[in-house]
Structures are given as structure tokens and as C-alpha cells.
Amino acid sequence: MDVSSADMYTGGIIGMILSAGPMAKAVMVILFFFSIVAWTIIFMKYRQYSRTEAEGDRFFRAVKDADSFKKLISVYRDSQDNAFYRLVLAAYKEVTSRQKDNPGRIHKDDMPGIENMLRVAISDESAKLERRLSFLATVANTAPFIGLFGTVWGIMDSFREIGVRGTTSLAVVAPGISEALIATALGLATAIPAVLAYNYFLGRLKRILSRMENATIYLINILDK
Amino acid sequence: MSEETWYKMLAVSLALHIIVLGAFSIPIKWGSSRKIDLSSAYSVNLVGSAGNLGGGSGGPKVAAQSKPEPKPDKPAPAVKEKKVPPSKKPQPIQKEDDAVSISKKKAPPKNKATREEVDRLEERIKNIRKKTDYIDVAKAGSGGSGKGTGTGAGMGLPGSGGGSGAPLDPAMQKYLLDIYEKIKNAWNVPGMAQKKDLETIITIKLRKDGRIVDVNIEKRSGNRVYDESVLRVLRAVEPLPPIPSSLNTDSLEIGFRFLPGGLS
To answer: What is the predicted ipTM?
Structure first.
């Protein structure tokens, strides 16, 4: 340690992180990485869900206006790729493949098959929507523990320092402990947004999926006409 | 979700983290950037050993030192209202209020001292222990040059001291100066402390090998970062040079007074 360490210490949180031990630094790097990835997922999912919900609104508007499946398809013909578009597309493909042998009206017997196809499409979509959401849950659960590990390690160091120095003076021990506690603080700072976001997205995901279920019912009804 | 947005979101997330980290560090960084290098302007003020008071007739040793402005809460008056009139003191430079002395704790008064004197001495010793055992590591304009003469004057005084407390001998002076020099050079005043009237008083206990075995904060400045910087520097300078064997002492207690400097 030299002058620069005293200098660094005055740099607030950053200085404290920089002057921490190697294990604490490793823990903090891991937590920082987790935090960045978690926030990336949060932004990604927010955008994905917002788009999907907007598309859902659009679908319901279109399906209420349309009096036949053909009309609905014409609305969606030039749409860009999205969850509800894929739902309509799955239904359309199934319908056209069944109409190949006997064009014209759709048979009553065909309906269960189409329904199954839509169900598959929904489960595909929900898999896409759920993807990477589990990482948020992982971060939310593990980040506090990782931070705690860093803190425990730092306090172990501090106590060893007491032994080496032969003094229990708070002045000797406190800075080490204070540095160690940063790891816990970072762990919590990483975990809290992840928990909040995970629960928020879980609720939103549920809403979107129930709307998709409704959409399939609309699709089947419109095919039945 | 397409891949291009993945990267976009990663960039957004990175930016967010950098902003948050920056928010934590910027105000303090800004302060430190205005830091002035004080190392060349520091002075260490020495006041003679309190141990010398033992004899009752011992003159107070007030180190000569130049200090830009005297502090209001000086503990030194206790030292100064001694029997020896100030005019007798061979001080080449104006005497230093903020300064400090090194205490040798035992100073049994001689029998020839009157009752009154004993009482007074005890009180004084108490005072001195409490308040004046400090070395000033403050900034002073002409500190660098004043130091040598200051300690010289301090030494010259105790000639009349009849007590058992040993006066500061040259080896001690030299040793203490080394320590102050080391601490002073290692200490960087935190940037935000520049304009504040902060004072941290610390006593440390040294082992023979120069290890600090105890750090005692006598007075906190009230500013955490400032206090920490002081504690940091004490940790940073360890181990201090070993106590010279010529001093015949196993441990030594030294007080320091950390002032941000006369910038206010």
C-alpha cells in the first residue's frame, strides 16, 4: 500500500471496490456480470412483451372485424413476424393442407386437428416468451449468496488481520469489514431488480398466454363459420 | 426475439451500469481532481516531551514552529502557563499552539515540590495527556524549514528539568521526525476536506519493531472519509522504522493531529 491506496479510498464505492482483496474482486466481477446480463434480459423481455401485447390488441381488433377466415388472413398477409401472426399462420397452413384434397368448406372432422395445431403453436410461443426468464430467477436467487460469500471471505481476512497485527482496534478491523460488506451490497443490488422483474414478467407472461388461448378460440370460431 | 435486439439491449444495459457506477463515483472524483498536493507544504510540529514536567521546575518545551493561523481550540495553553515565562524560551520562531508533544507517561514529582505544585502538576499532566500529546501534521507555509529549528529549541529547554522523565534526546527527536516525515508523505488529504475545518486526533502505540499495536482515535473529525484517510495512512506506513535501541524503550505512544491544512 502506498499513497495511491489512500487516494483510491476516497473514491467512494469505486475506490472501495478497487482496494478490496482479490476474492472480493472476483465476487464483485461475477455479480457485475450477472447484473449486466440480468438487465439485458429485462430490457429484452420488456420489449418483447410490449410488442406481443400490441400485436395481441391488433389481432383482436382484426378478428372482431373479420367475418371470415379469409378476410383475417388478408389482414395478416403483409404483417411482420410476431407471435399472433405465427398463430394465424399455423392455422392457415393446417387449413390449406386439409383443403388440398377436398377444397371448399372445412369439414367438422378437421376441427380437432386444427385445434391441436394451434395448441402446439401456443406452446411454441410460450416457450419463446419464457426463454431466458429463468435466468432472472437464477440471478435473483444466487446473487445474494454470492455476495454473502464475498463478505464472509472478507471478514475472514479481517479476522486474520487482527491475529497478525495483534490488535483488536476497530480502526484496524473496520475498513476490511466495510470493504467486505460491499460484496453483499452488490449482491442485493443485483438480486432486487431481478426479483422484481421476474415477478413482473411472470404476471405479464400469464396475461399474454391467456390472450393467446382466447385468440385460438376466436380462430376456431371463425373457421367454424 | 431477434438477435439484433439482443445486442442492442446488452448495450443499453451496459450503459445503465456505467451510469450507475459513475453516479457513485463522480462527485467524489470531482473533488479529488481538485486535490492539491500538500506534501511539500506539510510541517510536523513538535512540542517537547511532557515527561519533563515531572521535576516541577521543568520548563515547558514548546517547539518553535511556524503555523499560518492558530486554531481556536488549542489545548496548548495548559502547557504554556508554566512557570517559565514565555520570554525566556529560546524560540526562534513563533511558538506553535496546535502542536504537540510526545508523552512519557510516568513523571512522579520530586519531593521538594510543594503540595501546590504537585496538584498543579497532576492537573497539568492530565490535561496534557488528554489534549496535547499530539503531533501536528498540518500544513504550514514554511513548515519544511522551520522543523529543524523547532525541534532544536524544544530540546534546549528541559535543561532545568529535575524530574525523572527523560527529556527528548536527539535520537528520539530524530526517530520521531522520521515517523512524521513518513506519515506526512504518505498522507493525501481527501479532496473534499480541503475547505473544511476538520481535525482528527489519533494516538498510536508502537512496538519495538515499529509495528503499530494500537490505534486510538481520540477525536473524530466528524467526516468519515477524512477519518478513514487518516486510518488508511497509518496502515499504509506500517511498519514504521523500529524504535532505536538507544532509547531503551519497548513501546512508544505517539499522538497525531491531522488537519487538512490552513486552506480555509
So the answer is: 0.71
